[in-house]
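Record pair follows.
FIRST:
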Amino acid sequence: MARVPRPAGRWARLNSDAISMMLGRASISAKELYERAGMSSPTFYARRNGKVPMSLNDVEAFARILNVSPLEVAVLANHLGELTPDTPESTGAAGQRRG
């Protein structure tokens, strides 16, 4: 039986939101980011949208491509967590409704 991935937890969602914000400020597209990270489009968007947790390896790869440190991603994620209520339907950094 195939293992069904569980949805991303709060910290994984916050890291995904931080990556999305950093991508919005970068001079590369989402497609270039996931291709340079060796990731497929469905895998990238499942992580970005919180359907699947973003791993530390993902954060490290995206940070390297975005020319920031994984610590900078974590600091931004922590800051976003302070601004975002801890509910399953919290609004993501990109203004998209989670749920």
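SECOND:
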Amino acid sequence: MKKLIAALGIGISLVALYLALRDIHFDQVAAAFGHINPAIFALAVLPWLVAIASKVLRWRLLYHPDEALAPYPRLTAALLIGYLFNTVLPLRTGEVVRATVLRATAGLPVARTLSTILVEKVLDTMALIVILATILPAIDLPLVFRGPAVAATVAFSGLFVVVLAAALLPDRARAVRDRLLGLLPLRLRPAVVRVSDQVLDGLLPLRRRELAPALAGWTALSWGANLLSAYLCLGSFGLWLPWTAPALLVDATNLMMTVPSAPGYVGVYHATAKEALRVFGVDPDTALAFATFFHAFGFLPLALAGLIAMIREGLSWGSVQGGAVGPDSPATGAPAPR
């Protein structure tokens, strides 16, 4: 199944790459790179760093009440190594790698870390939906895109409600699960119960009122910094567009990362960013030049930092990648994700 999804992702990326390049004049794309203002781009780096730091600070909160077991240096290294693997491998392998790295460096159970990553994704997805719902009335989105955008807003909002309900009413969620177990073969039921219990336990931070302000604050800061960085990057190309432009750019590219694609989201990212900017009247050549630049800025430094972090943590590529599908850790007894 993984190979099938990976092949599908490559196919989607190839189609997206064709859509991104079909109306392009490459001499104009090259000329657009010559107009970059380095000083303005340098200003974009600071909020980008703030966004990454905010993710680490929020991630540590998700281990409550065991934050002491998740020191900031280990979390930062695991996050960067995860970015590295997400850049060079398909299927968002980096999310699983984050868990296996922390098992090796901090002794944290894989299941516990994966549950924190689940909550992280829930918070980020809801933030993206809030951004999308905010900007949709303010932009003239073509009808071909408005329908999917509204559908995505409704679908992801519904998913958030379901997850939040499971977090707030875990006993009720377990009762619903137990009723549905009868639809599954007997051999699968113990695994489903074990995994669902781990997920529900991992949703604990969402039902702790004392954590809600901090989680909301770090999430808002992370995405606000992302938007500011995108705004300044656009300005470095001379594209001083309304605030809705970086909001649509960041929102659309991040939501499209949920679609299977080639490693590093090549093609899908570029086509999405290009079309998002065309909504604001940016010509295709400049839009593609910016999409290529913004993609490189967002992925390559993090991939390099991830490689350095992996070396500093004394981990090899084979051990990290193998750990993602390897046996349970004898130190923690944590099940390796499948």
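COMMENT: The chain has one domain: 2-323.
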